[in-house]
């Protein structure tokens, strides 16, 4: 069955408010579904980025994590990641739809289907500001939960350091020790990741949809074509943005042991002391995670979105 076969749904652009609600629900549902399946690979990515001297490759990281903590160790940080991905994807796709309408209006178009992939990329980048702002605290909690056991083993934390029992406990610790600003450590890095990153993400996705579409209708895509478009979009995002993500992870995790660092200072220190390679550590697990994750995500997103528009009358 083709995604979006009910073409009458797309003959008229939905209202901005309806599109925002539908996109948000569809994005949130798809985000929770996708992240649960691929979270272990995200754990490996984060640990390899944060502790480059401890892990030579992803297989060693998997083996050591599994040996020390079992299957549960691979799912450390899953709860904030699920909540974060639900929130992120609700915000991503809600504001993507809103920004689509803004760009459509700015270019004097009648329908979002008339927008080029470049215009879709612009809408994605604009939505990245909201995404980064909402997601920063979630990613901080996720990164610290994923790496706190390693920090304790390496003795790189102070005497007052306590392992957090979960995301709520960790959030309480951060608020108590660092204040509200502590939850937004790495905000600039997070914005730097998601503003250009989402422009790439949606630009590649819409470009592939146009390339694989039957005729000129991007709504008549097979499930396989939708999954291929989503997988390539996710891979493009991480291939380009992985150095930014690596720096962001260090800033957010190292804030527990040293004075908070700035993005430029951190990336220069990494380059001077360790070279370029650490900036791309974790790329393998990230690509292994993001290809199937985004394939499933966009398939679920388009399906839920279509059904919701059908139920609400377009």
From TrEMBL:
It comes from the Eukaryota. GO terms for molecular function: L-ornithine transmembrane transporter activity. Belongs to the mitochondrial carrier (TC 2.A.29) family. The chain crosses the membrane at residues 20-41. Solcar repeats lie at residues 18-102, 119-211, 221-307. The keyword Nucleotide-binding does not apply. GO terms for biological process: mitochondrial L-ornithine transmembrane transport. It is a multi-pass membrane protein. This is Mitochondrial ornithine transporter 1. InterPro entries: MCP, MCP_dom_sf, MCP_transmembrane, Mitochondrial_Carrier. One of its GO terms (cellular component) is mitochondrial membrane. The lineage of its organism: Eukaryota, Metazoa, Spiralia, Lophotrochozoa, Brachiopoda. It comes from Lingula anatina (Brachiopod). It holds the Pfam family Mito_carr. It is found in: Mitochondrion membrane. The keyword Membrane applies. Keywords: Membrane, Mitochondrion, Repeat, Transmembrane, Transmembrane helix, Transport.
